[in-house]
Amino acid sequence: RFQVTTFFSYFPVFFAALLAMTCRIRLQVMRPTFIASALLMLGARWSPGSFVTSQLLRPASLSSWQLVRRAGQGLNEENIAALVKASEEGDPESQAIVGQFLLEGQYLEQDQAKAAELLSQAAEKGAKDAQFNLGMMLVSGSAVPQDLQKGAYWLEEAAKQGSSLAEYYFGMMCATGEDLPLDEVKALKYLRAAADNGLPEAQYPVAMLLFETTEHKDWSANYFNAAAEQGDYRAQYQIARMFQSGEGLQQNEELAAQWASTAANSGFPDAQYLMGTMLLSGQGVERNNAWAAHWFEEAAKQGH
């Protein structure tokens, strides 16, 4: 049975290192390293060529993939041959799929040079998933010489076509201003699109951008809340601060304490310190010096 490997399971370790810099966006005492943190959420296990995405193999209107899936069949020699033939005839979606198979060395003998060629051809013809994967290859230097500018170009091209992963990664590159010129407008545009397209990893960074770069701090609360509900302790902490201060949300000290407690129990030192101060003063919770000391100690253990 053929199983699709998602990009979320395999992400380039050195791309995480490449982009692990502290974003210029700050909120109070927290200085989030957007990209490094977000990439860790996606996972840092990767092997060359192992990013055939579920998007790439989604049926949609891909005639080549419909060939593969006809009559409920998985991949077999006949269907692989049909994909290769369609690729040789110039079908961009087939080129994208065959290129990934060649890159991985699965179903076809590995040939990274040919893989890069096919993905380039498919990208030039507008196949957004090929554009995304080629962009990631160029940014990371996998199977092709590293070229950040070309990589960013292809990521943006894929993002323009609604690839949520491309929207996310290109948006993050624009948000840092390191390898590309700082562009908060583009960063907000694409990160917000990725979040609205259902990519959970985009919710926290777009919330931070909205909070720091616009007057609509209340808009950021929706994205912070969505991220917090999915267990993002950074978002839980920010929601706590917003409830505590009344900035962007109606002030509610009890809810502030609840979210601070949740983030503190996740091990986030800023939230542990905040919880300590709230327990010490009795803000939103019953005053408890012993528990306040506990959270101050936990935060201190992590260098707060």
Describe how the helices and strands are arranged.
Layout: H1 13-19, H2 34-42, H3 63-69, H4 77-88, H5 92-104, H6 112-124, H7 128-140, H8 148-160, H9 164-176, H10 184-196, H11 203-213, H12 217-229, H13 233-245, H14 253-265, H15 269-281, H16 289-301
Helix pairs in contact: 3-4, 4-5, 5-6, 6-7, 7-8, 8-9, 9-10, 10-11, 11-12, 12-13, 13-14, 14-15, 15-16
Could you describe the 3D structure shown?
With 304 residues, the protein is mostly helical. Helices cover 62% and strands 0% of the residues. The chain is built from 16 helices and no strands. The longest helix has 13 residues, at 92-104. The radius of gyration is 22 Å and the shape is elongated. The N and C termini lie far apart (50 Å). Residues 1-72 have low confidence and may be disordered.
Question: Would you summarize the structure shown here?
Answer:
The chain is mainly α and 304 residues long. Helices cover 62% and strands 0% of the residues. The model is unreliable at 1-72 (pLDDT under 50).
List the helices and strands in order: HHHHHHHHHHHHHHHH
Number of helices: 16
Number of strands: 0
Poorly predicted segments: 1-72
Structural class: mainly alpha
**What is the terminal-to-terminal distance?**
50 Å
Evaluate the radius of gyration: 22 Å
Biggest sheet, in brief? Answer: none
Could you list some keywords that capture this structure?
304 residues, mainly alpha, 16 helices, elongated, disordered N terminus
